[in-house]
């Protein structure tokens, strides 16, 4: 069995945040989530996450995932260190298991890399395999120390390294694979005889070497994969790398981006082929976008389903559904639970909320459609307001097929306009309008002669 132990107990003081470090998000997903997903995609069958600082929040966020959480004790007499953290998962693996050690603050590690790493470890029958990397500036990393036969025999941390050892460029990524029995036995030999006074997992390497156990080193091809996040600027750098990776994959799958650097798409999003995305778009959460769509300008789409052939121009769409060949915007807002049909136009400064808007219907500009069921081929004129709130409760309006709502009309809910009902411009409708009727509700117009001269305005 393949078991992964993910270390996520650190406080992350340099983040200067009340949020646990591993819950800080990159493109909508916590750092820890990326590490968990990479492990799962590498056919890891059991995941044990070691938590400490902010454990309640971490537990709550991942409560629906099939994960074991182990809490690292905290206190002045606790030795801490990576070795101590791994000890907390003692019950979660067996002697014959392959145990993969990962870090919750290195979200860029790819499942493909882990696949190759685990395969190398198992085929080589190593007791321990270290994921290593060559860095131009290895400062701060533990150095991989090899003997005259180029065999790894220890890892030395920066603070404990000699001047000669500090010149070594091959570093420990913090990712290991162990045979379960060798890991458990070697953990018992750890001590705190080091600069930090902690139990270093890396000290196991020297113990295994002295016992003539086989130790492997698997070199990383893309050093960015082990980039660790310790501060907000690190988080920003990591986000840029992930954005580039995610956008590139969408483009490889047939999506066009005019300027991918200016487009933010979360990896949970699905986008169909031949969709074109212009600069400034933000697409988030559980959103699916069909084929042959066009997204212009500062469009943001959140947790929504967009059909094929849809054009969205500088609009905000939240938790809504948009049918095929519909046009949204510019400067429109679909608020949660807007269900917009096919071949619809939702135009300039139109807001739709908690409403059904039927196929072929139009709201060209400056309208509010709230808590309404609008049929097919309905025209909603400029300045129309569906008055849905009485100060205490929300009420729904219903508009039938082929109805016409004239400009500046108010539909005061609850009210019903049947099929082919016509509402004259400027009317405030409080009573139902039946099929084929024209409803006019206006005060009688009065023109007063000489009024301007009497007021002295001329």
Write up what this structure looks like.
- With 458 residues, the protein is α/β, with parallel strands linked by helices.
- The protein has two domains: 2-226, Spore Coat Polysaccharide Biosynthesis Protein SpsA, Chain A, CATH 3.90.550.10; 341-458, Hexapeptide repeat proteins (UDP N-Acetylglucosamine Acyltransferase, domain 1, 3 Solenoid), CATH 2.160.10.
- The protein is built from eight helices and 41 strands.
- An eleven-stranded parallel sheet has the order 12-15-18-21-24-27-30-33-36-39-41, with helices on one face. It has a nine-stranded parallel sheet with strand order 14-17-20-23-26-29-32-35-38, with no helix packed on it. Strands 5-4-1-6-10-7-11 form a seven-stranded mixed sheet.
- The longest helix is centred in the middle third of the chain and has 21 residues, at 232-252.
- The radius of gyration is 31 Å and the shape is elongated.
- The protein starts with a strand and ends with a helix.
- The mean pLDDT is 95.
- Residues 254-458 are annotated as: N-acetyltransferase.
- Residues 233-253 are annotated as: Linker.
- Its cofactor is Mg(2+).
- It catalyses: alpha-D-glucosamine 1-phosphate + acetyl-CoA = N-acetyl-alpha-D-glucosamine 1-phosphate + CoA + H(+); N-acetyl-alpha-D-glucosamine 1-phosphate + UTP + H(+) = UDP-N-acetyl-alpha-D-glucosamine + diphosphate.
- In the C-terminal section; belongs to the transferase hexapeptide repeat family.
